[in-house]
Write a structure and sequence with these properties.
Distance between the termini: 48 Å
Shape: elongated
Helix content: 25-40%
Largest sheet: 10 strands, antiparallel, barrel
Strand content: 15-25%
Length: 620
């Protein structure tokens, strides 16, 4: 089947911020009825389907007459590509159907009026479009909707999908914004990073698939559609002839592939090179090709998606074990955001888990850390952190969070931030954390210039840090519900300094400190000792925690890993923390069953509470 696309005019009753036609509405007049009929007649020679486009075809003064003429010329399918607003009038719907239209493609870009109307720049457009869809469905018409993926709506694609399913549409499509016309003029505010949209696109597709709807995507390359290849529209778009103003494109498929889309040098390494069209060329011209990763089918089993799936299984187990089932939906959303910029497998930790023991029992809750220098492309970090905070609306000090994110990089452009979360059983909201640290956490000091900036931003007097200011490896900010913020520093110390701190401060709280000294602070190769201090404004804040951090490069060797494990195990036994070791052992078994390695990162002690930190890595 071949389709004719007839652009009958660029006038429109919307003014979308992403419209590819841009100023054509002002610079080009609408075609006359006679001009359009000549194009319809020409199209009937070799096309079996016709779609009326624009602009907005339904506001052309001769719209109904043109549809009637297309029907008279014998087209089997007559589709109207529309913003749907005119179909809010039931009589107009009936007239259009009577004229011969038998398929409708309205555009819906938001799940609520505020979002859709913002993108169309017309208050009330959402209500009219939704009513138009309802009217057409009540008259038994086939509805294929289109949603343009933008910076404003990509996080809401699942909600948009639910709305479309509830409206009873036959098919919906997510089309990545094409940076032409208004979208080019508004590029910074309209075009999102494609890698950030991926999890939301897939979840939006899943909702339709589960509901038995036909779902598709457009202008999203295969490297972002792993596992969803059958939903790529370019595979099924019919051969199309476009009747534009003053010209006819006899083979738009070829034009789209050769002139509209583009492929990078590395795309040739991809097993989908021949079938994938690549992104709209304007996108990599602005952002480059770093997001686009060639796919090798023979290597995908056990690759990045498999790792994410297994991590997801582990979270399922931890959520259930820690009594957080009521929080599962939100935790899953956080995971989706965390992995939205996943860089695929490489050496090093990705998700780090914390287990703790206090007051004679293991604490029930979920605590983990996401290391962006392993997980995300650099540009994804800030957006991902914002998206996590905004899940909770106005619960946290988001203004402070925005300021903190301005310091996410060192002068040489290296990412120095990590995200953490503690969600304790029984609490409505978690504690969110942002850490400033070098990519080699615990082994590299923050530069003085960076510490000065952080102190200035957080209102901390650098003089109050004392000698620690020369030894800071991590600077942490805790965000509590109710917009309360906690500040802390992690300073590298020698063994003697740590022993002194333990005996003089932590040792006063508990005799278990001597077990810590014996089992943890014993001099071992491949470890760093760190002293945590909470900043309360006092010149000499009390010590809160003592850490022993194991060097990943050291413990990656099996012999050293087993030695570190035995050390941790003995310490927990001596400290009467058998329940905590049992909890860790169950978690490690679950990792093993999922073919993931569980490796120790660090242990910590404050005289009352004990922590053990582990991360998961794919078992190669």
């Amino acid at each position: 089947m071949k389709r004719a696309d007839i652009k009958i005019g660029f006038a429109c009753n919307n003014h979308c911020r992403f419209c590819v036609q841009g100023r054509k509405r002002e610079n080009l007049r609408a075609k006359s009825a006679d001009e359009v009929k000549k194009e319809i007649a020409r199209a009937s020679n070799d096309c079996q389907e016709i779609v009326f486009t624009g602009g907005e075809p339904t506001i052309h003064p001769d719209f109904l007459d043109l549809v009637k003429y297309a029907k008279a010329k014998g087209f089997q399918k007559i589709q109207i590509q529309t913003n749907g607003r005119m179909f809010a009038y039931l009589d107009f719907c009936r007239q259009t159907i009577a004229a011969g239209a038998n398929e409708f493609s309205p555009a819906l870009h938001g799940h609520i009026a505020q979002l859709h109307d913002f993108l169309t720049s017309v208050p009330g457009s959402f209500d009219q479009t939704v009513q138009g869809i309802k009217n057409l469905k009540s008259l038994g018409q086939a509805i294929i909707t289109n949603t343009v993926i933008t910076k404003s709506n990509y996080r809401h694609l699942p909600e948009i999908a639910r709305l479309l399913v509830n409206l009873g549409v036959d098919q919906y499509q997510f089309a990545f914004v094409h940076a032409l016309g208004n979208a080019a003029d508004n590029f910074e505010s309209v075009v999102p990073r494609m890698v950030l949209t991926e999890p939301f696109v897939k979840k939006g597709l899943d909702i339709g698939i589960k509901a038995g709807k036909k779902v598709m995507t457009e202008a999203i390359p295969y490297c972002f559609m792993r596992g969803y290849e059958e939903y790529i529209a370019e595979k099924i778009i019919p051969a199309t002839k476009i009747f534009d103003f003053g010209k006819v494109d006899e083979d738009f498929t070829s034009t789209r592939q050769k002139e509209g889309k583009k492929k990078g040098v590395d795309c040739k390494k991809c097993d989908f090179y021949k079938v994938c069209e690549g992104p709209w060329r304007e996108y990599p011209e602005k952002f480059g090709w770093s997001e686009f990763k060639p796919r090798t089918l023979t290597r995908e089993k056990g690759g990045g998606d498999d790792f994410i799936s297994k991590i997801d299984n582990i979270f399922e187990s931890l959520i259930k074990e820690n009594g957080l089932s009521r929080r599962k939906k939100t935790i899953k959303k956080i995971l989706e955001i965390i992995f939205s910029g996943f860089k695929d497998l490489n050496e090093g930790p990705k998700i780090e888990f914390s287990f703790s023991f206090a007051e004679k029992k293991a604490q029930s809750g979920l605590s983990f850390f996401a290391h962006p220098h392993y997980l995300w492309q650099e540009y994804a970090f800030k957006d991902n952190i914002r998206n996590i905070f905004y899940l909770f609306k106005n619960i946290y000090a988001t203004e402070q969070m925005e300021k903190v994110l301005t310091l996410s990089y060192l002068a040489e452009g290296k990412l120095v931030s990590t995200f953490g979360l503690d969600w304790i059983n029984g609490q409505k909201y978690p504690r969110l954390k942002i850490f400033f640290e070098r990519p080699t956490a615990g082994k590299s000091l923050l530069p003085g210039a960076q510490i000065k900036k952080i102190c200035g931003l957080l209102g901390v007097k650098q003089n109050d840090l004392g000698d620690s200011s020369r030894q800071i490896s991590v600077f942490g900010i805790d965000f509590f519900p109710g917009k309360r913020i906690g500040k802390k520093i992690y300073s590298q110390k020698s063994q003697l300094e740590i022993e002194k701190a333990l005996l003089e401060e932590v040792g006063k709280k508990s005799p278990n400190s001597r077990n810590f000294l014996t089992d943890i602070l014993s001099s071992k190769k491949g470890a760093t000792f760190v002293h945590l201090q909470r900043l309360s404004g006092n010149k000499n804040p009390a010590a809160d925690k003592i850490y022993k951090i194991y060097d990943y490069a050291h413990t990656s060797h099996r012999k050293n890993l087993l030695a570190a494990e035995e050390e941790i195990k003995n310490f927990l036994r001596h400290s009467k923390s058998r329940e905590l070791w049992q909890k860790i052992s169950r978690w490690k078994s679950f990792c093993q069953n999922n073919k993931l390695r569980a490796c120790p990162v660090s242990v910590a002690f404050d005289g009352k509470q004990i922590w053990a930190y582990y991360y998961c890595q794919f078992a190669k």
